[in-house]
Prior knowledge:
Layout: E1 6-9, E2 12-18, H1 32-41, E3 44-51, E4 57-58, H2 80-85, E5 87-89, E6 95-99, H3 103-111, E7 120-125, H4 134-144, E8 151-155, H5 158-165, E9 172-175, H6 182-189, H7 192-202, E10 208-212, H8 213-221, H9 228-232, E11 236-242, H10 247-258, E12 263-266, H11 269-276
Amino acid sequence: MTHPILIDRNGHKTWLKWHRGRRRASDPVFTGECIIEAMRLGASIEVDLVIHADHGCAVLHDRTLERETTGTGRVRDTSAATLRQLHLRDNDGQPIASKVMLLEDLCALLADDTVHPDALLQLDFKENRQALAPQVVAGFGISVSPIAKSVILSGGDFDAITALAGSAPGLRTGYDPCHRGTLAELKASGNYLGFIEDALATAPDADMIYLAYEIVLAAADAGVDIIAPIHAAGRRVDAWTINSVTPQSTDAVERLLRLKVDQITTDDPEGLAEVFSK
């Protein structure tokens, strides 16, 4: 079986990023097994980070515990020791054997394993600059520095990303300028190129710009290629997120491939790789 790593279309490689640590849609999120598998294969994989009560980061998406774990309450109010005792939940909400990892646990896991030189672990920081106590920054640097060459740090607050990245030399950065209302705003204004110019100016050191795939396609529908100026600036583009493999989503992926996005975030990289290997 073809490994779900990338799609090569006329010499342009588009990576399939394993969203929240999933190889396939049925996988639970953020398990060490899937993350190690991706890093051994040379895949691109993403996990999220939120701050916990002891001024470190937990590998979770939500700022509350109920949906993803067997815990309750806010991650911000939960100690590192308590988080490590919580089990993750599967897609049906049932507890699984895998437990919640902290950032230092994940980094230690990868430091002790064989990481493919092409592998890229995206740490998507879900907090803002105001949440960054000095202990958070210092702990981040200690954890990430040993594996920094295989990591990219992303988020929607580039000041926060810059502060954290400064503690881990060699760490790449990425920026996501999209929020819940961005698509509607851009459809109303038509100012797609201005949106990209602002993103590039806000994050001058970002290697990757993360864009909701609906925005990329809406711009194309309006006759605007928003990938080209990002490439012209020497950056790469991730289009997020293809949640499942359907006729509609594969049509969207086909368009994204024609537009030469560099990476597609998906909850089912194996399913997409199968469709596009035919």
